[in-house]
Design brief:
The protein is α+β, with helices and mostly antiparallel strands. It has eight helices and four strands, in the order H-H-H-H-H-H-E-E-H-H-E-E.
Length: 156
Amino acid sequence: MPFPSLSVLSLLLPAPKPPPSPPKPTLLSLPPELQHLIIASLPFTATILLRQTCRLYFHLLPPLDSLPALLAAEATQGAADLNLWACALCLRLRRGGRFADRMRRGEWGREVGMRRGRFCVECGVRGRDGDGGVGFNRGEGWTVYGVVFGDGGEGR
C-alpha cells in the first residue's frame, strides 16, 4: 500500500496552532512611576472615568468631594466644553441648565471670587424649606436660559 501524499495528510491532520501572542500591555501593567506620569497628564474628565474603572484607581485617585477640587475641575477646558459648573452646597459638578442664569454670569461666573457661593436651583429650592440651605426667598423666581421659574419674575 502506497503512502498517502503530503497534501492528503494535511487535510486529515488538524492545522497547527499559531504561537500565542504576547499579552497586550495595559495601564496597570506599567510601572507605578509611568502610571503616575500618564494619570497626571489626563484632563479631569478622563481622571474621573479612570477612577471608575477599577478599585485600585478608585482608591488611589482623589475624588472631587471638596469645593476647592470642584472649582479647580470647573476651571478646566473640559468642564467648559461640557458646560459643567460647581455647586457649593451639594458639592457636585452639574450642567449649566441646573443653575439660574444669574449664578452663571457676572459676580457668580467662572472667573470671579463669588463662585465659592454659587448654588444650583435644586439646592436653592431645598433651602427655602428650612433645611439649612441658602435658598431662594419667598416670592422670588429664577431664570434658566431665559425661562422664568418660581413665584416671581427676576432671576437669582
